[in-house]
Design a protein that fits this description.
There is one protein chain. This protein has 85 residues and is mainly alpha-helical. The chain is 67% helix and 0% strand. The protein has four helices and no strands. It has helices at residues 11-26, 31-42, 46-59, 64-78. α3 packs antiparallel against α4 (64-78). The longest helix has 16 residues, at 11-26. 0% of the residues are buried. The model has no long low-confidence stretch (mean pLDDT 83).
Length: 85
């Protein structure tokens, strides 16, 4: 498991992070698996959700023109909407 780079992490912080990881392991948790799960959750973006929705709509045999309009609206207007964080 990577704790950080030497440019961003001093020895005291590295030791503390290592202690935190070891504490999780001693409590029966798997920090590496938790990290992978966070990555998977972060990969669910608006674009991915739009594509899944469109795939589902196409599979349900939405009328071709209706599907084109839904797709156009989502990809042109909603998907490209500048969300603020």
């Amino acid at each position: 498991m990577t704790l950080g780079t030497t440019e961003n992490l001093d020895p005291a912080d590295a030791r503390q992070r290592a202690k935190d990881v070891l504490a999780k392991v001693h409590l029966g948790r798997d920090p590496q698996t938790e990290k992978a799960e966070r990555r998977v959750q972060a990969s669910v973006t608006v674009g991915v959700v739009v594509e899944r929705y469109l795939d589902e709509r196409a599979a349900k045999r939405l009328k071709p023109r209706s599907f084109e309009e839904v797709e156009r609206h989502l990809k042109k207007h909603w998907w490209a909407f500048p969300f603020e964080t």
